[in-house]
Write a structure and sequence with these properties.
The protein is of the alpha/beta class.
Length: 109
């Protein structure tokens, strides 16, 4: 989550992780790849909140016909036992920090 100050209303605005990636892509004048779902929330800019129930998130991504799931590396062990169907339909992209997540969201995977 990113917190921005908005000068026209004097309030703080919070952006979701996906909105933050989209904003960065727009500032770089480069579009994000379609068909992927980004999961994760930062904790005071220091680290990442753990993703609880990553298997359910991956199943939901398959149901929504996503082609890739961008998820923190801390969720890797939860996704080791995914089904063959899920493994063939969904590419799992792991990231360790926001910079790496943005690079993967902008680049070819």
């Amino acid at each position: 989550m990113v917190i921005l100050s908005s000068p026209w209303c004097g309030r703080w605005t919070t952006l979701t992780y996906g909105e933050s990636l989209a904003l960065c892509g727009a500032l770089l004048e480069n579009s994000l790849h379609g068909g992927f779902i980004a999961v994760g929330a930062s904790t005071s800019g220091v680290g990442w909140d753990p993703v609880h129930n990553a298997e359910s998130v991956a199943e939901l991504a398959v149901e929504k016909r996503a082609t890739a799931l961008l998820i923190p590396i801390s969720a890797r062990r939860q996704l080791n036992d995914r089904s063959d169907e899920m493994a063939t339909k969904l590419t799992i992209l792991y990231y360790t920090d926001a910079r790496e997540a943005l690079i993967k969201a902008l680049g070819d995977y």
